[in-house]
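INTERNAL AUDIT FORM
Audit reference: QA-55
Scope: verify that the stored structure record matches its stored sequence.
Auditor: D.O.
Record contents follow.
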Amino acid sequence: MTDPSQVTPVGLSFTDTGRLVTAGNRLLRLISGPRAVFTRSLFDSGLIGSLVDAGLLIESEIVEVAGLDADLVVEHRQIPHLTYPHEWCDEMLRDAALLQLDLNLSLHRAGLVSGDAHPLNVVFDATRPVFVDLGSIEERAELETETEWHRMHQFDRSFRNPLRLMSAGHGRIARALLQDYERGIESSDVAALRARRLLPRIRSRLRRQLRTDDYVSSLQSARNELVALRFDASSDVDWPALTTEGLPQHLAQLRPGSVLVAAGGTSRGQAAVRAAIESGARVVAIETNEPQARALHQWARAQGSPLTVAITDLVSPSHDHSNRWFALLATRLRCDLVIAPGIVSPLIVDGCVDPAVVAERLAMVADAAVVFDSSDSTVVFALTTSLETEGFAVDALDSLWYIAHRTAS
């Protein structure tokens, strides 16, 4: 029997069609009343299984768990290293948007629809987006008079308008506005920021005017527009030119299960990402600029590599999103090993960031150890002293790389 004191509500789960909770290391959806009957019918019909097999929906199964106040309990596979929409590069947001449209095309064939187009209903499993809001699936019978998805306006605010801004070179602004949970990005925001680009706006309006009065065609029209969007050219990852000076050998000895690379837009950071992937670990890459994040995501997606990319900044107070709704970055991106390649000296020497701040931010995402490089002995001494304060013991791996092991608390 599950101890109710061990059940914790998930912050961003508001719906009365199935509240998410964690119980130990399990992610459970608690469903009651008529919604429980409806959800069970989705499983019995084979629809849930087909959506999972198609890669559209998170793996889910009905389970028997005693001690919970629910008529039906569904367990979802937990995805490690959760990222939020405002941390995605343009290609990731487009991948998530296309998933939403493809899901609704599949649901339509079964007489169903998704009743929520919010981007937080999509989670990236490495480079692959999956839909996680089982509770938003509903019958479409009562909406049969609609010729367009009844959540298309929400979809525009959550996906199409942000992507339009990103294609116009306003990615940083788009990600900032995506943090507006209720409104997202309105068409008026796009118009204000693209005031001098009248032709794209006119074309967009014409597409809407010429759209056929057919539900499927409206989804397909939106899909075609998003696929056609072009973003600024990515900086290709020139792997042969990148070097990590002994890091692959160190990773082979350390054998971490998960690695976070604070890449910071550096070529050494990208090389460390590849070394971590080749070590067999599941990898998170933290980037600070969109072209580098896009390049890594596109490469990993093409290779099928276990890489999750997030655009954020470990040492900036602007990126510390910590409230009861959003999980702390230190919780959701925490890894066995953190690698900080080529960023320590620039942060401390050029950026004048206090070594104690750098150490604290690296320590918060490191479960067991931090690896960093520096040829500046003063920087090494300052960071070593600060890491020791955070409960780490620092040793040299070679003449360039250092490792800080978390000591027993």
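Auditor finding: record pair retrieved intact. The first helix runs from residue 34 to 44.
Action required: none
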